[in-house]
Design brief:
The protein contains four helices and five strands. The strands form two sheets. Strands 3-5-4 form a three-stranded antiparallel beta sheet. Strands 1-2 form a two-stranded antiparallel sheet. The model has no long low-confidence stretch (mean pLDDT about 75). It is an alpha+beta fold. Strand 4 and strand 5 form a beta hairpin. The protein has a domain of about 60 residues.
Length: about 90
């Protein structure tokens, strides 16, 4: 049995509150795509989303984020210095 994600186009252009911030007017991507962009594992990106270190939102049972949120996390050296997997890449 394989897991099928809804079409990515169903995630686009929605506004979701995330701890005071919002992923407004941003193209949303599933965490698996965020992992491919960032070079991190899918599990670690999910951990970052659940812990609030990566701006993301859960829609039903799927987590989504944006390219801008991934780039923001990757560019924040202070936040990444707390990253337990930073030396394993």
């Amino acid at each position: 049995m394989s897991l099928r994600l809804p079409a990515v186009s169903s995630y686009r252009r929605v506004s979701l509150p995330v701890d005071g911030a919002a992923l407004e007017n941003e193209d949303l991507i599933p965490l698996s795509e965020a992992a491919a962009i960032s070079g991190l594992t899918r599990q670690h990106v999910a951990f970052l989303a659940r812990s609030g270190k990566l701006r993301a939102q859960r829609i039903g049972r799927f987590w989504v984020t944006s390219r801008a949120a991934v780039e923001e996390y990757l560019g924040d050296a202070h936040e990444r210095s707390k990253d337990p997997l930073k030396n394993k890449r």
